[in-house]
Amino acid sequence: MIELPEWLYSSEQARELDRRAAAIPGYENGHLMRLAGIAGFRSLQALWPGTRSLAVCCGPGNNGGDGFVVAGLAATSGLQVYLVEFGEPKTPDAKRAHRYALASGASVVPFHPDVLSGVEVVVDAILGTGFKRPLEGLILEGIRAINASGKPVLSLDVPSGLNSDTGEAAKDAVGATATISFICLNPGIVTGSGPDRCGRVLFDSLQVPETVFSGMQPVAARISTWRVAGMLQMLPCRHHKGDAGHLLVVGGALGMSGAVCLAGEAALRVGAGLVSVATRAEHAAYLNAGCPELMVNGIESGSDLSALLQRATAVVVGPGLGLGSWGRDLLSRVLEIELPLVVDADGLNLLSEQPVTAANWILTPHPGEAARLLDGSTREVQRDRLGAVRRIQERYGGVCTLKGAGTLIATPNGSLSICNRGNPGMASAGMGDLLAGVIGSLLAQGLDLGEAAKCGTWLHSAAADLAAADGERGMMARDLLPSLRRLVDNPAAADE
């Protein structure tokens, strides 16, 4: 196995890559399928050593063909193999693999949930990347039985029932323990429901030559550690605090002072030289007491921001801003400036009421805020996260960062990036405020909009993964601060 690839391709592109690879001398006549089956079987042995019995559930297409190879290899190795077929193999390669599985001693059994109760591991090779239709009939029964079995599941390509392009999962999609993809990686594996359904993601290139990718434009890029390290190296050398930028954080309506405090502290931990906070006067004194490094200013109206904006190199607006007249007045003033800008939380909710377009901002919506920006529903956003982030960027300009599992970043040049770091423990109060501060800090220090969004998202998610070493449940936003400081100096620490 190798590290997950940086570039991501659609299911249609994946089929074309398979076709190209299978036409290469040495890979034809089912050899490519055999390589995939070998990689799948080796993964099974590595994940569950000592396994003596398994059920291999195969559909009629080439995904099922990969499963037939796994079944044949397992039977040859002395395992008890039950081959559960969900349709007759249709393609020449799948038919060839089916004959190999039978000749190797795999036992074909009709589907029945009891078949899965008597094995140690289940291999899911039913639908693969081609899934686009509702689950029904025997296949639906089979997938439900897999999920109900309680057995470890290895999915080949993608879990059956997961849309490999969008990350949308059917209600009864397979919940795999691990998933292995071949030749290329699809975006649906790393965003939306993909991370939850796929479990641990493995990858094998099958050693196909790079020429098969010639002329094919990937649909997205995974944000890698080495890319982040390169972006952080572009930050200017610091001789004094003035060289590291001055971030202004605007927000904190009555009762919501913690949001601007978290954003400000995160900005300092990621390296901003100076951080000012503009908030309600009632909050100023105790925010300073809690974090004396912040320069906290009590603000009554948007006009009071003028002097602070003149000193700032970048601005974050929205954390705890509220939807009242005070927040509206401050947002209106901030939107008049040309400084690099992060708009978050209530800033986005207010923006959705009176949409405008700008080139100098990064919008950071979660799915609910994204739905309001698009005049749609959260479900519509989650059904096609890639499409949603692109539409927001096109409608509002600048850069859009769509938060959630597999956070997406869309830039004005049409590029799309996905962060596959992070964990469920991040679903807690203040995490979004922290991210806004991290991104704002990088803007203040000199990264451009796209770099700050990608690098900041990665730092935030990677810090959460380090913090989760003490447990995901109960993880708070402040728990990320020590890891943020560590990672901004050494991104490679995320992989240690």
Q: Please, could you describe this protein's structure?
A:
By secondary structure, the protein is of the alpha/beta class. It is about 40% helix and about 15% strand. Strands 1-9-18-17-16-15-14-13-10-11-12 form an 11-stranded mixed β-sheet, with helices on both faces. The chain has a 7-stranded parallel β-sheet with strand order 4-3-2-5-6-7-8, covered by helices on one side. Helix 13 runs parallel beside helix 14 and helix 18 crosses helix 19. The model has no long low-confidence stretch (mean pLDDT about 95).
Provide a quick synopsis of the model:
Helix content is 41%, strand content 15%. It is built from 19 helices and 18 strands. Helix 4 (92-104) links the parallel strand 3 (80-85) and strand 4.
What ranges have pLDDT less than 50 throughout 5 or more consecutive residues? none
Structural class: alpha/beta
Strand order, sheet with most strands: 1-9-18-17-16-15-14-13-10-11-12
Strand content: 15-25%
Number of helices: 19
* Major β-sheet annotation: 11 strands, mixed
Separation, N- and C-terminal Cα atoms: 18 Å
Estimate percent helicity.
40-55%
Offer a few descriptive terms.
single chain; alpha/beta; 496 residues; seven-stranded parallel β-sheet; elongated; 18 strands; eleven-stranded mixed β-sheet
